[in-house]
From TrEMBL:
Keywords: Amino-acid transport, Cell membrane, Membrane, Transmembrane, Transmembrane helix, Transport. It is a multi-pass membrane protein. Residues 9-22 have a biased composition (Pro residues). The chain crosses the membrane at residues 40-58, 78-105, 117-143, 163-184, 233-253, 265-290. PROSITE patterns: ABC_TM1. Its main location: membrane. Residues 81-287 form the ABC transmembrane type-1 domain. Pfam families: BPD_transp_1. This is Amino acid ABC transporter permease. It is found in: Cell membrane. Residues 1-22 are annotated as: Disordered. CDD domains: TM_PBP2. The keyword Cell membrane applies.
Length: 338
C-alpha cells in the first residue's frame, strides 16, 4: 500500500496557469545588481580628505586670507602678471616660428641643414633654462659690441650690446631659443603624422612646394601639434618664473619682493598660485576651442561644447517648467467630442 507521504509526480499544469520556468531560462533567474564596495570606500575616503583640506583652508589662520585679498588684485601684482604674459607671448610666437623652421630643416634632404638643426635641438635641450638665461644676461661680458658688416671683414656699424639687449630682451632671447628646440620636435612630429600620399597627390597636381606645406601639410598636422603645443605653452607660462634670477618684475619675483618686506610668505605664495591657476585655465579653454576648430575636417559632428551643454540643460529645464504650469486637458473619447 503506497505511503501518503510520497510526493506525487508533477503533472500537467492547470489550464490558464503560467508554466514553470525551465532551469536554463533567463527569465527565471534572479537579477542582482553589481555591488562595488571598493569603489564606494575609495569615494568616501576621497570625500573625507577633500573635506579635511577644505576645512583647513577655511580655519587655519596661517593662510591669512585677509592678506591674500589685499594683494591679489593690487597694482604691483597686476603689473607683474602683465610682464609674465608678455614674456609668455613673445617666447611662444618667436619660439614656434623658429621651431617650425628648424623642424623643416630636419625634414630637409640637405645633410647640412639636417645636421645644423639636429645640433641646435640637441644643445638647447641639454642646457637647463636657468643656465641659458644667466648666459644671455651676461652676454655683454662675451661681446661688448654688436655690429653689422662683411663676415670676417670690416664692420660698418656697431653698437654697445647692453643698449640693444636689455634685461627683458635677454630673458626673451633665452626663453625663445629654449622653446624653439622643443617646438621643433613638436612640429616635426605633427608633419610626420600627415600621410605621405597627400604630398604625392599635391605634387601630381603641380602645386608648389611652399603652398603644399602651407595649405595641405600644416592644417592637417595641427591636429597632432596642438595638444602637445598647448601643454608646452602652459609649461612656458609657469617656466617664466625662472627669470627671477635676472631681477625682472614678473609675478614670482614681485611676490618674493613683497613677502621679503612684510614676512607674509604663505598668503603671498597663495597669490602667485591663484594667478597661475587662472592663467593656466584660460590657456586650457583656448586650447580646447582651437583643437575643436582644427578637428572639423576629421569629425563632421563634433560633440557639444560645455557652454552648449549648459544652454541645452537650461533650455530643457525651462521647457519642463513651462509644461508643469500648463493646464491639463482631460482626455475625451472620440465619441464624446461635439
Amino acid at each position: 500500500m503506497p505511503s501518503t507521504t510520497d510526493t506525487a509526480p508533477p503533472g500537467p499544469a492547470a489550464p490558464g496557469a503560467p508554466a514553470p520556468p525551465l532551469p536554463d531560462d533567463p527569465a527565471g533567474l534572479k537579477v542582482v545588481p553589481a555591488r562595488h564596495h571598493a569603489r564606494w570606500i575609495a569615494a568616501a575616503a576621497v570625500i573625507v580628505l577633500v573635506a579635511q583640506f577644505t576645512h583647513g583652508l577655511a580655519t587655519n589662520p596661517v593662510w591669512e586670507w585677509g592678506v591674500f585679498q589685499d594683494y591679489v588684485l593690487s597694482e604691483t601684482i597686476v603689473q607683474a602678471v602683465w610682464v609674465t604674459l608678455q614674456l609668455t607671448a613673445y617666447a611662444t610666437v618667436l619660439g614656434f616660428l623658429l621651431g617650425t623652421v628648424l623642424a623643416f630643416m630636419r625634414l630637409s634632404r640637405s645633410p647640412v641643414l639636417q645636421t645644423v638643426a639636429w645640433t641646435y635641438i640637441w644643445i638647447f635641450r641639454s642646457i637647463p633654462m636657468i643656465v641659458q638665461l644667466v648666459f644671455w644676461f651676461n652676454l655683454s661680458a662675451l661681446y661688448d659690441r654688436l655690429g653689422f658688416g662683411i663676415p670676417f671683414g670690416p664692420v660698418f656699424w656697431s653698437v654697445d650690446s647692453n643698449s640693444i639687449i636689455g634685461t627683458l630682451g635677454a630673458a626673451v632671447i633665452g626663453l625663445t631659443l629654449h622653446q624653439a628646440a622643443y617646438a621643433a620636435e613638436i612640429v616635426r612630429g605633427g608633419v610626420l603624422a600627415v600621410d605621405e600620399g597627400q604630398l604625392e597627390a599635391a605634387a601630381a597636381l603641380g602645386i608648389p612646394r611652399l603652398r603644399q606645406i602651407r595649405r595641405i601639410v600644416l592644417p592637417q598636422a595641427m591636429r597632432a601639434i596642438l595638444p602637445t603645443a598647448g601643454n608646452e605653452i602652459i609649461g612656458l607660462l609657469k617656466g617664466t618664473s625662472v627669470v627671477y634670477v635676472m631681477s625682472i618684475g614678473e609675478l614670482f619675483y614681485q611676490v618674493q619682493v613683497i613677502y621679503g618686506r612684510n614676512g607674509r610668505v604663505i598668503p603671498l605664495l597663495l597669490v602667485a598660485t591663484a594667478w597661475y591657476v587662472v592663467l593656466t585655465s584660460v590657456l586650457s579653454v583656448a586650447q580646447y576651442y582651437v583643437e575643436r576648430r582644427y578637428a572639423r575636417g576629421a569629425d563632421r559632428t563634433p560633440p557639444p561644447t560645455p557652454l552648449q551643454r549648459a544652454r541645452r540643460t537650461v533650455r530643457a529645464l525651462r521647457t519642463a517648467a513651462a509644461r508643469r504650469h500648463q493646464p491639463v486637458v482631460p482626455f475625451k473619447p472620440l465619441g464624446d467630442i461635439r
